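Example: Xylulokinase.
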Amino acid sequence: MSAEVISSGRAVLGIEFGSTRIKACLIGDDTATVLAAGAFEWENDFVDGMWTYPIDAVWSGLRAAYADLLSDIESRYSVIPSSFAGIGVSAMMHGYLALDAAGELLVPFRTWRNTTTADAAAELTGLFGVNIPLRWSIAHLHQAVRDAEPHVARIDSLTTLAGYVHGRLTDRRVLGVGDASGMFPIDPATGDYDADFLARYDRLVEGGALPAPLRELLPEVLTAGEQAGRLTAEGAALLDPSGRLLPGAPFCPPEGDAGTGMVATNAVSPRTGNVSAGTSIFAMVVLERPLQREHAELDVVTTPAGSPVAMVHCNNGASELAAWVGMFHRFAAASGSPLDADAVYDTLFGEALLAEADAGGLLAYNHLAGEPIAGLTEGRPLFVRTPDSRFTLANAMRAQLYGVFGTLSLGMRVLADEGVELDRMYAHGGMFRTAGVAQRFLAAALDAPVAVAETAAEGGAWGMAVLAAFAVSGTDLDLAGYLQRHVFAGSEPVTADPAPADVAGFASYLDRYRAGLEVERAAVVALAPTPPATTPPERTSR
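Written out as structure tokens, the predicted fold is:
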């Protein structure tokens, strides 16, 4: 049956450019079952003071992930697809891709991880009266304008990574509203860029180097369910140089990884939210009402359907945890008792369950890059203890796991002070694969129930495939109704309620964490940065 679905072109393809892996996921008619998957590992580079990915790696990585998908399809079903019922592309949100009239990059891709836009973000926050984070595309653009970068006068269009790839595959300059909301503020009444803010920005830079009004440089905004072009012959050749893939497949709007995470966890309705843990970690909470005031820790984006969402975005997620696990992985091999990566994770996570609730007075900072919520312009990973701390393996590993959630918890407490209430928080990411550990500690950090669904392990590429299936379904349902009726019907996630002892222990840990941020700030000043590790995390960004 699955072979016939694939060979007849009824399967749907989702592609996501994550921070450490490019993933391809194929689903069938029922929209929930994964038929096949492929992946390619890549890693960002720190070049000339900027976090970036070589643009050639975008295309070589995409082809490699698609080829890996084809290999999986052929090994399972002995068929090779020549077409798809729908395709969708998602990628890391935010960042800066400035293109000239020929569609070529004017400067290397600047990712969400860069924190060089503080002056621009502060000026724009004052101009609009809403928080403009350092990672947003408009902050990157305005910093380039402020710095009089020569390329500004040649900008023909701006986009995100998802929009860039989508444009090359379909020849359409569009963006899903969720991803667009990380470029420039969205007006919830229109589902488009805020017209008043656009006018304010044009007045701010009037007479400057920008060659056109900002609206003309930004991609068209589309919402989930709309069609966003078709695969061109050039796009088919980019994806599959063998020539077996035919043009013509319809595309849904390209989206950001935050939006696909919400879809993958069925967290697109008010009073729901999700936490995505990978190289970065962020929480998305769908709002019932607007926030009462501006908060530096929160920014307002949207779901793929355009509903307002409060986002707590932390630049640093589980990469430092993965580095520690990698060290123990090597120790096991050096001792003559090698373990595979999953076994090392399981062993260390299990040990963390034996720790003291407050991690024995230990502290772990996972800041490989700057962390705006913590007031850090650069990152310095630190492991800190006092002479009276209880330095055990169990406490050390609980401290590392708590450290992943430390900055996120600071932002979520601001959201709680706003009176925002949640029925349930969903979580996804590789660190939740070891059952009952990271999920339990996140519940303690949030003091709220945390659910992990089986589908969450499939990640954003699966969520993007679901969005593509929604766009070609012809249904009259909205996105929330479609997910509930056709994707998650009958499924029940595993939920961990916060344990009082863990909640108290994490609160004690967080008090030390806040105080110890002065140590982090001193380290940024005292210690020069070293080149970033090139080995990607082994499980954290699935």
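The two ends are 28 Å apart (CA to CA).
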